[in-house]
TrEMBL record:
<dbReference type="Pfam" id="PF00005">
    <property type="entry name" value="ABC_tran"/>
</dbReference>
<feature type="transmembrane region" description="Helical">
    <location>
        <begin position="80"/>
        <end position="105"/>
    </location>
</feature>
<feature type="domain" description="ABC transporter">
    <location>
        <begin position="277"/>
        <end position="522"/>
    </location>
</feature>
<dbReference type="InterPro" id="IPR003439">
    <property type="entry name" value="ABC_transporter-like_ATP-bd"/>
</dbReference>
<dbReference type="InterPro" id="IPR036640">
    <property type="entry name" value="ABC1_TM_sf"/>
</dbReference>
<dbReference type="GO" id="GO:0005524">
    <property type="term" value="F:ATP binding"/>
</dbReference>
<dbReference type="InterPro" id="IPR003593">
    <property type="entry name" value="AAA+_ATPase"/>
</dbReference>
<dbReference type="InterPro" id="IPR011527">
    <property type="entry name" value="ABC1_TM_dom"/>
</dbReference>
<keyword id="KW-1133">Transmembrane helix</keyword>
<keyword id="KW-0472">Membrane</keyword>
<keyword id="KW-0067">ATP-binding</keyword>
<keyword id="KW-0812">Transmembrane</keyword>
<dbReference type="InterPro" id="IPR039421">
    <property type="entry name" value="Type_1_exporter"/>
</dbReference>
<dbReference type="InterPro" id="IPR017871">
    <property type="entry name" value="ABC_transporter-like_CS"/>
</dbReference>
<feature type="domain" description="ABC transmembrane type-1">
    <location>
        <begin position="63"/>
        <end position="241"/>
    </location>
</feature>
<protein>
    <submittedName>
        <fullName>ABC transporter ATP-binding protein</fullName>
    </submittedName>
</protein>
<dbReference type="InterPro" id="IPR027417">
    <property type="entry name" value="P-loop_NTPase"/>
</dbReference>
Amino acid sequence: MIATEAFGFILGICGVQARIGLNERIGQHFDADVARISGTAPTLDHLQDPRYRDQMHALRERMGALGMAYNSFVNSVNNLVAPVTTIIVALGADIRLLLLLLIGAPASWWAKSTMRWEQEAEDESAKAGRRSKHFADLTTDPVAASELRVFGARDTLLRLLGREAFAWRMPFARAEARGAAFSSGVTVLYVIAAMGVLAWMAHDALHGRVSPGAFATGILVVGQLRDVVGSLQGTVHFLGQTLRTVKRYRWLQEYGATAAAAHSGTTPAPSALHDGLTLQDVTFRYPGADRDALSHIDLHLPAGEVIAVVGENGAGKSTLIGLLTGMYDVSGGKVLVDSVDLQDLSLDDWRQHCAGAFQDHLKLELTAREAIGVGDLEIPDDTRLLEALDDAAASDVLTALPDGLDTQLGPSWPGGVDLSGGQWQRLAIGRAMVRRSPLLLVLDEPTSALDPATEHKLFDRYAAAAKETSRAGGVTLIVTHRFSTVASADRVIVLADGRVAEQGTHEELMAVGGHYAELYGLQAAGYR
Ligand SMILES: Nc1ncnc2c1ncn2[C@@H]1O[C@H](COP(=O)(O)OP(=O)(O)OP(=O)(O)O)[C@@H](O)[C@H]1O
């Protein structure tokens, strides 16, 4: 007897452990899949789409429900099977007791309505939820915190956070209040119905048509029948929540498939460029924007050249880089890689042939080795990383790190080291230099955080790196506001208001005496 009890106890524990393990595995699978769909979309358009961001927010809020799907299914089966005994006992006592189960109909309707209200609350609050998270992140970000303190904007931020958090939670509170009111209504209805049935049975018991035993059983079973109705209610509700999350997950899968289909090119990228990169009548507008960021651009970027792109703020320089690296699909026209439309190329493959340092570079809080070699962590030894740092004139950044390449970056980690803005930027440039002979090397304002001496050193290295890039016909594109870089480029493109205003060599543009010559003159005067 004791052995049987013990065996049952052990089996029970194993069952619970297996269920927890399975829940976790299912949850992890869904987490990984959602990250995969979001992270592997070929272009970045989805990250600009508010609909996508809202759905992702709602899905993240309920991700746990997917992990619990198996558990809720087992519970639901349990909830539906367990009441059978109660129903048999009620049936044995008096069939009229089963009338109480009819209350299950409004209870299920309650569950369905609650689900609808919850879904509406999720949709309605997603935007405020995202805003509230954004403000909450700002309060914990050290860079944001210092700027907010300087402007004395901390209280404003906290007020905004409070307002958005309220707007986020309010629809849920409303849905819950409606659900609770309706649930109380169902309970009152049940109590009235139960009293009615018991009064009817009592009347029959007084006239000898119902035995006292059956009446007593009726009194006992009435409470249990309420539990049957309640568990039916709970099951419909729980399943509804899971289904709703699955629906959002399906929406995300379809969205991912549509995004992938929009860029379905599979042609491998060439191993070398012969002609170069060409933009034919290219127009681009960001999703949701009301004007084009680039309009009717015709450009040829010859293989092997170092090309500088200049222009005032908002002229479209970074957008041009975004289109050449395939981050966005053009709205009109074509980008050609030699003679192949970028649309027909496998973007993954094309990006294997691109390298870049960007204006808003990442501060990867990893070890220095990982932060520099993140594009290719399989590199067998450190030689290439050290060469890349040398190309980026960033070897001294490494020398200053206490554990060299093993140093943990980021002050919020144990033993982590923070870097200055310029040091982070030079590591980012080092990262760009790890890939040898890319077909497109983009340096988007790579020197904005650097001092003039470092900048000068850096440009000598760029020239050497660009020569290596040009061996495979690679194009080096430097976006800059500093004209000292521009003069040594093979070609300068001047963008203004999303259009090509001028192009040519530094000497040609100076001779024309147009926009470029004017900007160059202004900057040169500033340095005198
Ligand atoms: N994500 C975006 N969504 C909507 N519009 C954008 C987005 N990014 C840029 N724009 C708009 O596109 C135009 C070109 O911006 P872009 O960043 O390419 O300019 P830029 O020349 O690189 O400017 P800067 O010198 O200030 O870096 C601008 O009008 C800008 O407001």
